[in-house]
Amino acid sequence: MELTVNIPALLFPAISLIMLAYTNRFLALSSRVRALHDKYQTQEQRHLIFIQIKNLKYRLKLIRNMQTYGVTSLLFSIVSMFFIYVEYQKTAQVIFAISLLAFCWSVLLSLIEIRLSTKAIEIELSDMEGLEDPTVMDYLKKKFERD
Questions:
Q1: DSSP letter, residue 44
Q2: Between these two residues, 131 and 118, which has the higher pLDDT value?
Q3: Which residues are CB-neighbours of 37 under 8 A, at least 6 positions away?
Q4: Closest CA to 25 of 147, 141, 110
Q5: In angstroms, how far is CA 71 from the centroid of its own chain?
Q6: H runs (alpha helix) in 43-88
Q7: pTM (2 decimals)?
Q8: Non-local CB neighbours of 125 within 8 Å, separated by 6+ positions
Q9: Are 70 and 15 spatial neighbours (Cβ–Cβ below 8 Å)?
Q10: What distance in Å separates the CA atoms of residue 6 and residue 69, rounded to the nearest whole number?
């Protein structure tokens, strides 16, 4: 398969948009960490707040790695385009493959971070009584029973 300049260039908008999403998540998390840290200093229920901060700290590391692999993917796409330009097809293909792998790793880390964010919400709501965590089947049964 011949690699053209257009193929690596297709990653540019995708990587740009995903990096914007990662940055927004990072900013939201960092402000949440600051608020929880202040709350930890002044209030009781330190155990719950400590668990939340620990979760957020790990998520921040994940986001940093997501961003790192996203930027790495973009840089390897650019380098791949250079090798296409100077007509080193095999080198360009290998570098583009590395770019795709970096992008896949970034998205996989994003999936892990999203799963952890739902865990953080569960921790936040854990002190409320009466919340149930139904299975999907229970939810569907209740949904169809109402109709």
A1: S
A2: 118
A3: 53
A4: 110
A5: 14
A6: 46-85
A7: 0.69
A8: 131
A9: yes
A10: 21
